[in-house]
Sequence to fold (251 residues):
Amino acid sequence: MPLIFVLSPGADPMAGLLKFAEDKGFGGSKFNAISLGQGQGPIARKMIEAAVEDGSWVALQNVHLAVSWMPQLEKICEDFSPETVNSNFRLWLTSYPSPKFPVTVLQNSVKMTNEPPTGLKANLYQSFTTDPVCDTNFFEGCPGKEQVFEKLLFSLCFFHAIVQERKKFGPVGWNIPYGFNDSDLRISLQQLQLFVNEYSHIPLNAVTYLTGECNYGGRVTDDWDRRCITTILRVYYTEEVVHDNKYKFSP
Fold:
């Protein structure tokens, strides 16, 4: 029985799935993932056939992009039976809603969705209760610089919530809707921790550039939106955040 993540803009279940697999003892070589697209179907089939025998997990990402391969996926799922499938085997699928998705696969699967949170409070709560922030080793990963790291970490999570919430306001928020998600926050947090540990004085210009121009800005295609997101980020990545205990994001 496949397990399907129904995708929505701004939601990325793969990081959570990888952590779940690791916690259940199916990390590393026991977990195989592939993003479907042109020419990836035969590779995915081989991965499933091997996993059915050895009891590993397989994740097929973006199934909606492989329209021509969906009939084969349907046939593969129909052939599953308790007698031939290892009891530890799991087939995970991620897909946006698609009229071409095999109905029988949908009917015989467990369906899940990971909606992005609504509201600043809910956004912040999710950021602090998901990987990597919820990992004690990561949160305490800057010995001797905890105050600096924790303040900038909160600033970054607040910035992430702000750019997510601006989508509510249509063209007043962003000229073009963008699919900012948890992976943008995750890589930005990891880079922040790296810079805090490596330098005695935080190079905020470098951190701001990586976060605003590369991680989040890499999705932005409109010049005014790019200017907007970097301007917003400068409110949250600033020396005052670290040194002023009464610094306000919104005066």
The mean pLDDT is 87. Residues 146-165 form the longest helix (20 residues). The longest strand covers residues 90-95. The beta strands are 3-6, 31-35, 57-61, 90-95, 110-113.
